[in-house]
User: Fold these one by one.
Assistant:
Number 1:
Amino acid sequence: MHAIPDYNDAVEREAGLGAIPSDELLDGVLVHTARGWRAETVEHGHLAVIQIRQSKRPATIIRLNFVLAHGDGLLMPQHGITTDQASQLQPARRVKSERNMAKRQSKAKPTWEEVKAELASFDRAALLAVLQDLYAASEGNRAFLHARFGLGQDPLQAYKKIIDRWLWPDVFRGEETSVSRAKRAISDYRKASGDPEGLAELMVYYCEQAAGFCRDVDHQDAAYRDALVRMFEQALRTATDAVKSETVRNCLLGTLDQVRSIGRELGYGIGDDMDVLFAEFVSSSRRRVIHGNR
């Protein structure tokens, strides 16, 4: 009966066909026979020089004198390069990589001048095609163009929809308020059109929605209430100073007077602040006209 060689132990055993045993003790050092290296070895480290020395049985001498470089993210064999030489190449590759990254970052933030330079070569048809793509890209772009050219029955409707969403959300569905987004709608309209009457109307609408929401749901957010008072002041200034039509101005001021009445119900001195602001911007004679029109 002969013992069956074990494939896991470092013991000397019989090998067939003149092959080197799976594991061999050479000069007291355990050496594995040459075999295909797994992908993990290539992925995570350099291959060093491996020499299998003479033992009791003839052995094959195998010399692997190459490294696998990870230049620019690619696995490339570089024959004849030692580990020290490869390590000296790393700083150069790092500098090159940093330069390429800097170039990409510089192109990542194009300016209007660059866009204008590209558009300068466009003819009328090409420019219209770009505008058509922008028009289809987002609702904000469509609202901008409608307001810029005064298209539609009510160019303000898209901006009022945004104000309504962020000042009077559906609390039962877990929606939240956002003063900044509601104000941004007014700012976007100013950039798109800048019409004083439309701007004043959006400001007054902001005050209506904010005051109504605070009253109906007992909204207690201090920042929200403070923003309401500040917008009330801006609406008064815009309506009295920028709106030319007397009829439109009196209509806007009449709505703000109703907002002031709601403010008195909210407490926290909101009504008092609005009374002071209203008296500052609206003369007594105009207040009589406003009250007479109500």
Note: The mean pLDDT is 77.
Number 2:
Amino acid sequence: MQPRSGIVKSRTGGIMKQRRAGVTFTAKPKGFTLIELLVVIAIIALLAAILFPVFARARENARKTSCQNSLKQIGLGFAQYVQDYDETWVTPDKPTGTVTPGVVCRDGNSPEDGWEAWIMPYVKSWQLFVCPSNANKTYDGRINGGRCRTSYAINLNYWNNTRKNAWGAPVAESDWVKPAETVTVVDMTAADSWVGGWNMNPPANWDDPVSSPASTFTNRINQLHLDGSNYLYKDGHVKWNLTSRVTFRNFSIEQG
């Protein structure tokens, strides 16, 4: 039965066809307008602006976790060293000109001193000493001045303590007052921190954060991981923290 208007409508492949009095009219689907395209582009740009920081944070979290795992392995290397050396902690330097047998930096040269060389026989990989978030390629395990440069610095203050009254005197396990609260290794920066630590002057207040103006080594702590740093403590645990939450007390075995 034909419609009263005499118009017959049919749809084929998404195209509307109208037939009237033996003549067929074809209506093509309507495309996007310029405004509609601009709206779609704006939505995509908005989603990208929201998601990209999320992805970047997730990537940095992964790097932070990798750095923490490396520090844990370094902590295990310290523990093994202490067991083999009569419960005595590593010393800051070795006698000039001496090398640890079988230990070489990433460039193939043998280091003459440095705490990394002491524990290399236990960790067996220079890659552990390179933080994945450290873009400074000079700290990649190659030798410089007798030491292998790395991304981490050791807390030299436990060698320079009044109990021993001598720089570099052997430090026994029993000398650590609060090992769970005392930092041994942390991310580092600054031009001279490849030496592997700090020489901290006694502050007026041991509870001042290391980020305070009185600090002599604030700028040597890398805040690479989401505005914070990874810290290895004497008892072997690793913790991320802000420099504003870490105090001078955390860097002294005596004031621990």
Note: The radius of gyration is 32 Å.
Number 3:
Amino acid sequence: MPKTPKTPKTPPKSKAPWYSMVSNAVDGANVVNLHIFGEIGWDISAQEFITELEALGDVDQVDVEIGSVGGNVWDGLAIYNALLNHKAKVSVLVTSLAASMASVIALAADEGELRMMEQSMMMIHNPSTGAWGDQNDHQKAAKMLEKVREAMVGAYMRRYNGSQEDLIAMLDEETWLTATDCVENGLADAVVTQELDLAACLAELDLSTLENVPEEFLAIINGPKPNDEGEDGAALAASRAQLVSDIIVRNQQSAIAADKPEEDPMDPKEIVAAEKPHEKPRPSANAISVPHSRSLSLLAR
């Protein structure tokens, strides 16, 4: 008796700017195409993400494409666990960058199903926080950071083929890994060599939220690639070169600022802005609130 083809369901319309989810029938199987191309958890929660995934019903395969600088730690862990425990086959392709919490989500792929484009990269680092208050508040934030890192280390160690001590050293250093590096250390299964306009993919990412971005990676953005509308290649190259220059300058300024002694844990203006719901500050990387302290956010950066 012939198998009755499955009818894909349409998920509720999402307001999320950082992911899209579409269900398609492929050879009688129900396949979900999931794209994560933004700051994870911003403007929409993991609960809404998971609700949308569940609304698709029974699916046979979830194909995930990732090009993200990271995002909210709690949302990222919830999405990681939702994909990790999903009964469907989960396949992940890193198209440009899987940084911070995005690298953790990528690890939810089934064995043998985590692939990276040849020129893509993965960045891993420790969580950090924007805590403020007295010494007790900072001690609570520090303890929370330790617990968050333990959770992240556990996810990495499911795949990493080295020692936990080596992995922690990589987190401490904020390590950028090529696709080949990831395959060699077990954080990816294969390198995909098909042609891809990586510069176009990277142009959609706000790399200024990350520190220590390798200049050779930023340089990929630079290059004459005329668009379909016939835009002049030289003008486009100049535009991308300026973007690379701006990002490098911001990274250098951040490094200089980090060397200066801090007089106050947080500028009073930033605190006031954070307390206004309509002026919610955008985190520079993966953010998470800290219970029982006056920390504004935890950042996996």
Note: Residues 221 and 243 are 8 Å apart (CA to CA).
Number 4:
Amino acid sequence: MRPLVAAVLCFGCIATNRVTLDETAALFHDDLRWGRIPAAETSVDARAREAFQQHHRGWGTQVRVVDLDVDAVRTASSTGMLRVRVTWVGGNDSTDVREREADAMAAESLIPRSIWSRSDAARLRTAAAVESLANELRISTAIVAGRIRRETGNYKILTKHLGQGEVRRHFPDVVWD
């Protein structure tokens, strides 16, 4: 699942001066980021705490916070307000953020977007187009076919170009389940 972006307001984070507000913002950030919702609640103004609890009830279980950025900080006498930008994924999404970043880097280095977007393989998704692009880029047809399968979500197409069984052939002493 792709991360989604949502806005969360922290009303009246208790602070007596700008330094304390910055410290409170940093603690609030860390508590939300690492799923310490009860600790984060202590930074929320009592008047908004119940709404905050209701809204964030599933965080840490149904929702996993991936990243947080403090967008804005406003102060007024002894209180302040933070606007926090939250990137999150569903709690059942086991894909690690670093893994997704690595996948994106690998995809770009093997088949640059500028080439992919104009290729017949991306548009036609045929065996001939897969072979043509693989030859042009001097990469395996399995990389091109795999990208098409991943982007379309159709893992039944282009199976002949994946080289199934090729790895096992190089490890004859291994007993495969």
Note: The chain is about 45% helix and 20% strand.
